[in-house]
Amino acid sequence: MWLSRPPSRWVPCWCSDVPAVPRVSSAGMNAAVRAVTRMGIYVGAKVFLIYEGYEGLVEGGDNIKQATWLSVSNIIQLGGTVIGSARCKAFTTRQGRLRAARNLVEHGITNLCVIGGDGSLTGADIFRAEWAGLLDELLRDGLISEEVAKANGRLNVVGLVGSIDNDFCGTDMTIGTDSALHRIMEVIDAITTTAQSHQRTFVLEVMGRHCGYLALVSGLASGADWLFIPESPPEDGWEDLMCERLGETRSRGSRLNIIIIAEGAIDRNGKPISSNYVKDVRAAGWEQKVGEGLCHHPRGASDSLQSSKMGMEAVMALLEATPDTPACVVSLSGNQSVRLPLMECVQVTKDVQKAMDEKRFDEAIQLRGRSFENNWNIYKLLAHQKPAQEKSPFSLAILNVGAPAAGMNAAVRSAVRISICRGHTVYAVSDGFEGLAKGQIREVGWHDVAGWLGRGGSMLGTKRTLPKTCMEKIVENVRKFNIQALLVIGGFEAYEGVLQLVEARGQYEELCIIMCVIPATISNNVPGTDFSLGSDTAVNAAMESCDRIKQSASGTKRRVFIVETMGGYCGYLSTVTGIAVGADAAYVYEDPFTIHDLKANVEHLTDKMKTDIQRGLVLRNEKCHEHYTTEFLYNLYSSEGKGIFDCRINVLGHLQQGGAPTPFDRNYGTKLGVKAVLWMSEKLQEAYRKGRVFANSADSACVIGLRKKVVAFSPVTELKKVTDFEHRLPQEQWWLNLRLMLKMLANYQISLTEYISGKMEHVTRRTLSIEKGF
Predict the structure, then answer these.
(1) CA gap 359, 660 in Å, rounded
(2) Contact criterion met (CB below 8 Å) for 518 and 704
(3) What is one process in the GO biological process aspect for this record (predicted)?
(4) Is there a contact between 577 and 338 (Cβ–Cβ < 8 Å)?
(5) Tell me: the pLDDT tens digits for 539-556?
(6) Sheet strands (E) in 83-232
(7) What are residue 77's phi and psi, to 5 degrees?
(8) Which residues of the chain have pLDDT under 50?
(9) Catalytic site residues?
């Protein structure tokens, strides 16, 4: 179906450009270049790289070069774009586009893949609309023949949005945004210790000329005291209110204040609000700016993964294009690839700016999408304590269970604060179910969780003990403290522990309470969710380690690294890290392999290492096979590669578990904590009768998780039916579809019959209002 015309006629090229104003390139662009190039070659097409964006397209010559598989080797870890990007005034004119058309026709290029912002993509759509007229003009001037004009009669265009500002409506996250957020959070984490030591106020300016996404998410992920975004200017007189609020936090013992400003921040009258002005208003601060250096930071794993996935989908979109197919943008919605009509996205993006220009700020926030609106509402809810309207009769206990995972503390912080906002009594339990049994329970307040967002591990303390070993003591303390709801944040043990409590309800009436599990484990093996807290941090830690491992062999002889990752029986870490670093193979338990597969892999890698490729990377999940151990793989590859390459072993171990949480895990944990408590509050009201809570229905004990596009609550008793308890895995795992991409980009000949193409979805106010869960 997708090869309905000869591959030789499908000739994609890559163009990266932002013509309107000087901007910087985005991390993740090279991963997209690599994916488009390799996928194009994989399906039998010629692929051309266009250097220096539209300028190269207009100038032609050496700026348009045919690519090979090796042309994009060892670029996935690099920031910026190896093919360059430049403004081009000539392309904004018809004469310039006429020259560009001639250059494409000379190379037989009829498919164009463009990465850039709305200006670049709009230019591509204009170019596409004019294509027939441009060919007629070239034919009339005698610059091309009638046969050439007929052979190149249609230009297909697909776009990938590259913008660290995440300012393109309709997409969850644009290429470069995740890396920019990493950079901002690194700076905030670094200055926090200085601010605490010297009791300073830091004013941090981040990029975002027309969109406050970076400021908003970094403010949410850092617990900033005050936030300025262009979509929601502060009310008149904000200066006095800000100083009053900051003074209140100091009077309660805080030693620092963080103020974050988007570079496009304005007041209600449209006057710019600068970081210098805010510093002068505060009159006790010190300024730190984060400007264009943001996107020069090495990429986040999310940028590599989504860029690779979108790059492959872009090729499929071009292959499947028909004369009636509009120019589209490839994006991800949740973990699904989607295609969006380009001009619908551009129009809504323009509508946002128009709404801001006309001071319709509430509408501007809504047009940004439901996720943006939720971020803003949650930030306002958690930034400053607001007295509950009335004291509720409910008490809620929070505990961590299992191994520590980044993001646990963010979830605890938001759960505590939203519970206080609802008037609940909140208890913190130390050391998991064991602490609950021993009575290690204390009431916590708003300021007890201050500063927890950026902390790794578990501030509450966590253990793997399951309830069945101490059930009677747990029941005794539930009764003693009158606990009516239990929020358990942890990995597979948290899920299994809550399931044990539910199954014990028939014996202990005290356990007929509301229970919720927030999955938090680097293994990402909890049923009921596509993503667990901590897994993003773990993937980023593994990716950075693999990048350093590969770099360690730079300048030496050919070398292959065998790297072991954690994850138990779950191969998520190995697979996603493998895609992010461009691994040659990733062995996991869920994708069984034999000695014949190993032999084929070794031969494949040996052939590659006979070319100009200097380094190879093979990942192995720690429990992927009982007999084919890391040592076995090392010996096998060393023996078969003797004389061609040598091998080294690296066991990443617990470094995947430690470190500061990524922006995603901080934001995700914050949102899950809020959503879990709001759900539990609703369930408590439903189960409250005659002064007590009694809940024994299946939906009173759930796992909260992100499933495809939405946050869902799944009863633990239902999830039991789809769980492999022996191997501590869900029976179905969405990420196994990613292994096809891993193998294709490593040049294994795999059938495309299993590839699931993205669907065309429209961008309207209704679709923007749908809750995406992030």
Answers:
(1) 38
(2) yes
(3) canonical glycolysis
(4) no
(5) 999 999 998 888 887 767
(6) 111-116, 156-161, 201-206, 226-228
(7) -90, -5
(8) 1-24, 284-298, 773-774
(9) 165
The DSSP letter of residue 407 is: T
How much is the pTM?
A: 0.91
pLDDT at 63: 94
CA dist 556 and 308 (Å) reads: 28
For residue 509, the model assigns a pLDDT of: 95
- Residues 403, 464 contacting (CB under 8 angstroms): yes
Q: Please give the helix or strand (H or E) that residue 437 lies within, else none.
A: helix 432-438
Bin 557: left if φ > 0, else alpha if -120 < ψ < 50, else beta: beta
pLDDT at 218: 94
**Identity of the amino acid at 731:** Q
pLDDT value for 387: 79
The per-residue pLDDT for 167 is: 87
Return the structure tokens found at 329: 């943008």
Per-residue pLDDT, 491? 97
* Tokens matching residue 317: 């979109």
Q: What is the DSSP string of 530-574?
A: S--BTHHHHHHHHHHHHHHHHHTTTTSS-EEEEEEE--TT--HHH
pLDDT recorded at residue 525: 97
Going along the chain from its start, the domains and CATH numbers come out as 9-174+298-357 (3.40.50.450), 178-281 (3.40.50.460), 388-533+661-730 (3.40.50.450), 541-657 (3.40.50.460)
Residue 77 neighbours by CB distance under 10 Å: 21
User: What pLDDT is recorded for position 81?
Assistant: 87
pLDDT at 300: 66
Q: Distance between CA atoms of 687 and 697, rounded to whole angstroms?
A: 10
Whose tokens are 């430049």? That residue is 86
Q: Record the tokens describing residue 434, joined without a space.
A: 């064991």
Counting beta carbons within 10 angstroms of the beta carbon of residue 623, is it exposed (0 to 12), middle (13 to 18) or buried (19 or more)? middle
In this predicted structure, what is the pLDDT of residue 568? 95
